[in-house]
Amino acid sequence: MTPRAAIAAGAAAPTRGATAPARPALRPVAPKRAATTRPAVAPAPAKSGRLNPVGVAVGLVVASLLAVVVGNMVLASGSLTLEHAQTTLGYAEQAYEAQLAAVTHMESPAVVAQSALGLHLVQPSETLQLPSVSLVRRLGPPVFSGAPCCSLTPGR
Question: Going residue by residue through the chain (156 aa), what tens digit of pLDDT does each one get?
Fold first, then answer.
């Protein structure tokens, strides 16, 4: 028999030297079981990559409440600043009114007359009224003379 015929017939082909050892059969082998067996546990459900809608809703509610609290704190601090400014303005208005009342009292005719008596000032015997002048026309330089203008001011 020729080597080709032997291969075709399923027989081993003759080799030139020593005979080759037989090849082991290739078949899957089941893994050996461990001596201690673990209790059977149900496998965890597979995550599908989608978010839980209830968790998202709770997160949105918590975030919105937190935003409301922060906004309320900002408004409260602004209100306190405004109240402080209004209080300071009230004190300033009271001080201005007190000063205005004091000045109004000091420039009243009765107080001016009393102050004049204290400084030994006398009432003038006559008053000299100055004529009104238009503000549109420019005035010339003043002219001084040595003649008296009235009985109280003697000439020079």
Answer: 566 666 666 655 555 556 777 887 788 878 777 666 666 676 666 666 788 889 999 999 999 999 999 999 999 999 999 999 999 999 999 999 999 999 999 999 889 888 988 898 887 788 888 888 788 888 788 887 777 666 666 655
**pTM for this structure?**
0.38
Exposure of 61 in the CB half-sphere (CA atoms within 13 A)? 6
Give the whole-angstrom CA distance, residue 105 versus residue 101.
6
Residue type, 90: G
Burial profile 59-87: b = 16 or more Cβ within 10 angstroms, e = fewer: eeeeeeeeeeeeeeeeeeeeeeeeeeeee
What are the start-end ranges of the H helices in the chain?
A: 3-9, 53-106, 109-118
Alpha-carbon distance 114 to 120, whole Å?
Answer: 10
d(C-alpha 117, C-alpha 110), whole Å: 11
